[in-house]
Amino acid sequence: xxxxxCPFCGEIMSVDYGTKRDLSFNFDGTNNSVTSTxxxxxxxxxxxxxxxxxxxxxxxxxxxxxxxxxxxxxxxQARYQHFPDYVPVGIREDYExxxxxxxxxxxxxxxxxxxxxxxxxxxxxxxxxxxxxxxEIDAIKDKVPAAQWRAIDAVxxxxxxxxxxxxxxxxxVDVEPEEAGELLQLIxxxxxxxxxxxxxxxxxxxxxxxxxLAKKEAKNPE
Length: 222
Prior knowledge:
Low-confidence stretches: none
Distance between the termini: 61 Å
């Protein structure tokens, strides 16, 4: 294992005895080693070395047929990006909750993701007065790069999600976890492209402007 990305802070950690522990067991008393080839439950615990994080991630998976070979993220309950505070709190909360329930309730996850997308369009692009998310997406067609708009528009083509998006953003339809995952990937992309890129751009403008002012004051002291 080359490295492990902490789901809390995003840091890539090296995997060694200082960051990872393994436990392995079953109920027939024949297995107590992570290298065993008999059916058993394998638990991995990762501890983030980042001084500002130091959080543990716990993953369990069945081996050699144990619990049907499933892998379960125990803590945290889901992997999602921790976006900065300048992304509106309602958008972050909807996105995080959608990630938490993606596998357990993909229909509800998809509904939250669509509501998150709608909130982003209304907040970032200040789209008001449109009847549905379908029309709100159409309203930003000339405001974003063509490839980006096509990615947003393509959401309407993902199975039953796409078939019903133009009717009601809160309508729950049959979806698969993978389809809900597509929506969440789109949300992540748009947060990066819209909110984070805008913030980074504004910060750069501010630094350059302040640099020019400092140089001017140094050249012409009072």
